[in-house]
Amino acid sequence: EGKGMNLTIGFNIFQVELNREYRLHSLFKKVATSDYSATRSIFLRTDLKKGRYVIIPTTLEPNEEGDYLLRIYTDRSSGCREMTLDKPEVTCWHVVLRYPRVVTQLHLHGAKDLPKQDSSGGANPYAVIKCEFHKIRTAIIENTLNPEFDSKVIFHRRMPTLPIIIQVWNRNTLCDKLMGQVTLDGSQDNHGSPQILQIHNNGVQEGQTPGSVSVTVKTSSNLAAF
Questions:
Q1: Are 70 and 54 in contact (CB under 8 A)?
Q2: Which of 96, 138, 174, 192 is most buried when burial is the number of CB atoms within 10 A of its CB?
Q3: Of 97, 54, 103, 132, which Cα lies nearest the Cα of 224?
Q4: SS (HEC) of 52-117
Q5: Which is nearest to 185 in space by CA: 204, 157, 211, 212?
Q6: What is the pLDDT of residues 2-11, one digit of tens each?
Q7: Cα–Cα distance for residue pair 55/159, rounded to 1 Å
Q8: How far apart are CA 51 and CA 32, in angstroms?
Q9: Please, are residues 159 and 180 in contact by the beta-carbon 8 Å criterion?
């Protein structure tokens, strides 16, 4: 009594937006998958680059339910927590601050033909994405003028008419330098088509171009769309 068959279990790890706070409602890039086995425990060791990830334990067969215990070991603090909400909660503060009206997901693919920043002709670029009161920074890509950021961010926006700003910076030892920026019209309809946008920088030297960024932007009035 009390000794039944073990469910065939495993788990998947997905890379999500750098600032995700709520549960997943669409497909994301799968970066690791454990073996599936009808045993009491499953183990996986993997290396992940800096970012934000979601671990989803599953059974092999659909419509099977069971309790589980998830242990995560990392070589540095991970800030691991359970995602329990599908979208922002309605609180009394939203009478003053407004409840979000739309959700926007931005995928910054990369930049191309950035201006040279040092004597060796290279740069150490990173991007800063600003939306309303939020500011998200990507990882630094070392020694390149054509960085592949491959970074996603998500914003639950109270004021959809305000623009989204993408800045590209160069990391320096003493003081980082702004290489240029792109301003996206926040009110325009975005259907998920890739865009190549020219970077603007009034300080670019004659004969140089500030380069461009490649982005995909999706916006929905359904706050649980992504």
A1: no
A2: 138
A3: 103
A4: EEEEEEEECCCCCCCCCCCCCCCCCCCCCCCCCCCCCCCCCCHHHHCCCCEEEEEEEEEEECCCCC
A5: 157
A6: 456 789 999 9
A7: 32
A8: 14
A9: no
| Mean pLDDT for the chain overall | 89
- The torsion region of residue 25 among left (phi > 0), alpha (psi -120 to 50) and beta comes to alpha
List of residues 6+ apart from 48 with CB closer than 8 A? 13, 15, 31, 32
Determine the Cα–Cα distance for residues 70 and 74; give it in Å rounded to an integer: 13
Look up residue 29 and give its two tokens. 């890039």
Would you place residue 206 in the very low, low, confident or very high pLDDT band (cuts 50, 70, 90)? Answer: low
C-alpha separations of 124 from 18, 98, 202 in Å:
20, 38, 20
Query: From CA 120, how far away is CA 46, in angstroms rounded?
Result: 35
If you average pLDDT over residues 125-144, what whole number do you get?
95
**Tokens, residue 168:** 């590209």
Q: What number is the average pLDDT over the span 98-125?
A: 90
Helices marked H in the chain — which ranges?
94-97
User: Which are the contacts of 84, defined by CB distance < 8 A and separation ≥ 6?
Assistant: 23
Average pLDDT over residues 24-51: 92
**What is the Cα–Cα distance from 172 to 40, expressed in whole angstroms?**
50
